[in-house]
Design brief:
4-stranded antiparallel β-sheet; about 140 residues; 2 domains; single chain; elongated
Length: about 140
């Protein structure tokens, strides 16, 4: 005999809110068979997939993902280490492979210029899109 509760659309359930990043009360918005698919947060109103608060990511998988990300970041920094790091400013004339020092995110490498005023930068914690205007020459 199964002890799994059968849920229905409109019922209340606890889910990790993907916006608030906390386990909060949600209303079930959609089901796929007997599985809760979509929920709406009662705190922020966000509609997102159901995330079981008891499941969580396994510590081993999380550590492996972090190690892989840090290794890729270290390789980028080493390939750009011949250049002097520049402090990040909105008006900085950054180009690909420049090493920058951001006040909040730390050391990063410009991996791509996305447009005339945006750059993609890889930091130890991941990629960020930052503003950067080229100087008029």
């Amino acid at each position: 005999m199964s002890t799994t509760k059968k849920y229905q659309v409109g019922e209340e359930i606890t889910s990790v809110c993907t916006k608030c990043k906390l386990p909060l009360d949600h209303t079930i918005a959609a089901m796929v068979g007997e599985r809760v698919a979509k929920v709406q947060c009662k705190t922020c109103g966000g509609l997102h997939r159901y995330v079981n608060p008891a499941a969580g990511e396994s510590p081993a998988r999380k550590a492996a993902k972090q190690t892989k990300l840090e290794h890729a970041w270290e390789q980028l920094v080493q390939s750009s280490s011949s250049k002097k790091k520049q402090p990040y400013t909105f008006a900085g004339p950054f180009k690909q492979n420049d090493l920058i020092d951001h006040a909040q995110f730390g050391l990063g490498v410009v991996t791509q210029r996305l447009s005339w005023d945006k750059i993609q930068v890889t930091f130890k914690e991941g990629e960020k899109i930052l503003l950067s205007k080229r100087k008029v020459q």
